[in-house]
Amino acid sequence: MHDSVSHENSARYLSKIDCVTLKKKLKTSVPLSFIKKLKTKLFKKESNSDSTPPSKTSNNQPKKQDSQPQQRSKPNQSSQNAHRSDRSKSGSNSRNQSRTNSRNNPNRNNQNRPNNNRPHNQRDNRSERPSSPRPPKPQVAPPKPKGKLFSELDLHPDLLKKIAKNKFTNATEVQSRSIPAALAGKNIFCSSETGSGKTLSFLLPMIHKFYTNEIHQALIICPTREIAIQIEKTLKSFEDESLTSALVIGGTNMALQKKALKEYPKILVATPGRLLDMLNSGLIWLNYTGYVVLDEADRMLDMGFEEDLIKIHKELSGDHQTVLFSATLFPEIKKMAKRYADSYEEIIIGNPTSVAGSVEHVLVEMPDNEKFFALKYLISRNPGKMMVFFNTIKDTSGIATQLSRQRIREMNCIHSKIDQPKREKIIEDFRAEHIKVLLASDIAARGIDVPNVELVINYDVPNNSEEYIHRVGRTGRAGKTGIAITFFSAKDKRKLEAIEKLIDAKITRKKSYKDVI
After folding, report:
1. β pairing state of 321-326 and 188-191
2. Minimal CA–CA distance to 167: which of 141, 140, 152, 145?
3. Of 200-204, 229-233, 256-260, 333-337, the least confident
């Protein structure tokens, strides 16, 4: 007890002695700064141990300013320290009292602020303002329909109702010319630009003939699975209980297809290879097929299906009408048409070796090691949907991997080594705009019918000049505008000459890819 009292008295004594005086009395070489720290700690301990309540006068007393500089040797230093101690204690107590009152007052922060009593789910409008708003993109008015009304084409009334339900009103030029000829029972060889509406040109006459009982079976042959799936999807929008269809394509479960064939569908949408497999197995016979469509006939020749098509033609032993569509017009295509039909009506829309006039074509020269950076830049500058084409599967998947590592989102790739269900899912995501950038090999160039593709990039110049037409045909469809950019280098000179000769036009050159968008 005596020790504690002595310690307390010593603390009070030391707290009231000047630092210089204390150092002299202690006769120590300790730095003056250390003594000041020690003295401060003792001063705080002494003030906390003092239980005397602060007086009202000291609480309201203004702080006095010394008019003369402080003298270390003045004897009234202890009294000044005492006053400071009282002010410190009263200030501490007043701050504690203020905190207690704040906690007990829920409206403490609203005294000098505007009324913020709004629901929690209501956001502050100030936080919704963009820091640097972009100017709005100019809206392009949709093109006005120019062709005939479908109601003027002598189609079955039930079919016209379904056309109206699908919000089709006016026929395109190729539809206005080919549908009447097909309804008259003529064999047709039609060539028109990519994206001109060929699918409805052969589907609508076929459905009409089913309604009028002119045919009982129909066959549609396509070069790729993607084209077949797209045609079957369009066909489903017109189907009812009297019309049934089935897909016969490679890369999918054959057991499911055999099960569908046992229900005797009236319309088959098939690729040549899988169709021959089913014919050889005896599950399909084409003796009663009255309506045959060869879609993208030029593509089927490019892919080496000529021998398969000859074998399929031999199975078509009954009377049938043949409708052949092609995006390009070459002697080999006419030879195929003559093999399938002795006489036919030739319908040529525009320049069959040209591309849609709504597409702007641009060539940008650059070395191979700069292509990836150019692609990244164009992706960042284009807010809409875009497709990028490659010559090989390896480059398609490799660039997709690099873009993914660069944190490029809303991007995917498609090629022949991806299984069919996954490919269909990727295409559906691209159509629904869950994917904005789709990388593709040439096999997917004709099989994807997706609206509103604003930009097509040829990462590689296509090896086949006809392939250029089908690549850039993915944009500028249905009267809308688009841009097709092709990266090239000196080694691609001959390929570009062949492309420009085929489309009969000189493609614009740009010095930098940054000048395009």
Report:
1. parallel
2. 145
3. 333-337
Q: How far is CA 338 from CA 48, 271, 288, in A?
A: 111, 21, 21
Buried/exposed 383-392: b ≥16 CB within 10 Å, e otherwise: eebbbbbbbe
149 SS3 class: strand
pLDDT of residue 365: 95
Q: Give pLDDT tens digits for 311-331.
A: 999 999 889 999 999 877 666
| Beta pairing class for 359-365 and 291-294 | unpaired
DSSP tag of 123: P
Question: For residue 24, which amino acid is it?
Answer: K
State the CB neighbour count (10 A cutoff) for residue 484: 25
Edge-first strand order for the sheet with 291-294 is 245-248, 267-270, 218-221, 291-294, 321-326, 188-191, 345-348
Read off the pLDDT of each residue in 114-124 and give the average, rounded to a whole number: 43
Quick one: DSSP state of residue 132? S
The strand order across the sheet containing 453-458 reads: 411-414, 437-441, 385-390, 453-458, 482-488, 359-365, 508-510
How many CA atoms are closer than 13 Å to the CA of 28, on its beta-carbon side? 13
Q: Locate 133 and state its tokens.
A: 């708003």
CA distance 424 to 414: 9
Helices 393-405, 371-381: inter-axial angle, 10-degree rounding:
60
| Burial of 363 from C-beta contacts in 10 A (0-12 / 13-18 / 19+) | buried
pTM score: 0.56
| CA pair distance 279, 252, nearest whole angstrom | 17
Q: Is 504 left (phi over 0), alpha (psi -120 to 50) or beta?
A: left
Q: Can you tell me which residue has the tokens 């630009």?
A: 193
Query: Could you tell me where the beta strands, DSSP code E, fall in 287-425?
Result: 291-294, 321-326, 345-348, 359-365, 385-390, 411-414
40 SS3 class: helix
Calpha distance 134→136 (Å, rounded): 6
Query: In DSSP terms, which residues pair with 390 in a beta bridge?
Result: 441
* Average pLDDT rounded to a whole number, residues 104-122: 44
Contact 228, 249 (CB under 8 A): yes
Name the 3-class secondary structure at 422.
Answer: helix
Q: Which residue has the tokens 């301990």?
A: 45
Residue 403 CB neighbours (<10 A): 21
Cα dihedral: 179, 185, 191, 197 (round 10): 30
DSSP secondary structure letters along 234-273: HHHTT--TT--EEEE-TTS-HHHHHHHHTT--SEEEE-HH
